[in-house]
Amino acid sequence: MNLKQTLPITSEYDIITARQAAREIARQIGFNTVDQVRIATAVSELTRNVVLYAGLGKVDIEVVTRGERQGIEITVSDQGPGIADIELALSDGYSTSNGLGAGLSGARRLMDTFFIESRVGQGTIVKVGKWKN
Amino acid sequence: MSSGVPILKVDDYWVVAVEETLHDQSVIQFKEELLHNITGVAGKGLVIDISALEVVDSFVTRVLIEISKLAGLLGLPFVLTGIKPAVAITLTEMGLDLQGMATALNLQKGLEKLKNLARMEQR
Fold first, then answer.
1. Looking at beta carbons, which residues of chain A come within 8 Å of B55?
2. What total of structural domains would you count in chain A?
3. pLDDT score, position A102
4. Looking at CA atoms only, how far is residue B120 from chain A in angstroms?
């Protein structure tokens, strides 16, 4: 069982590959169905952002443990244009791509932990995590 | 290129069962094909079943909302069916709103809903 995976994001096809990989790892370490879907959906949103705004990037999926607890951590990174105003990008309904503006904020709500770092002109890293109950 | 999603006509109703995970271009292609069909040939209603979809993200939601709005403008009653419980929970938590879209448990119930609606309108 491979509990760590790095996948490139180069096209919209990779959105599906990435979310299926994340879901499969989540399933293997015993996340319930709803959590598997939450995790897969968050990965879908974050990797689509890469395709939409940066074009290229990667996703790291990793199983993490803290004491007795097991969880999954997903890091989506790109070297795209970056986000000038993260607060604004995280607000509901804000979109620069004619979308619903639910990608980043939605991913944050679906996961337990959320970390974002972005530099204009350098890229964006989003790290999200979920712990098993 | 075709989206590969079969768009069927059953008893004057448009019936679509999205069978597999579609990548973004296929979703857009499907929307175009569907609009071409429903604007070209008259129908009494439209049912889209998404019970095969394990993940419904904001992109797919947006396209469904667009289809719903366009069906509304065309006067074509629309029902979305087969939303999995985990998908429903996820959409709600993300704050995504299906914007008053009619829904039903499965294809069968969706068709019944449309037929009831047609019967009521005849009265």
1. 19, 23, 37, 40-41, 44
2. 1
3. 79
4. 35
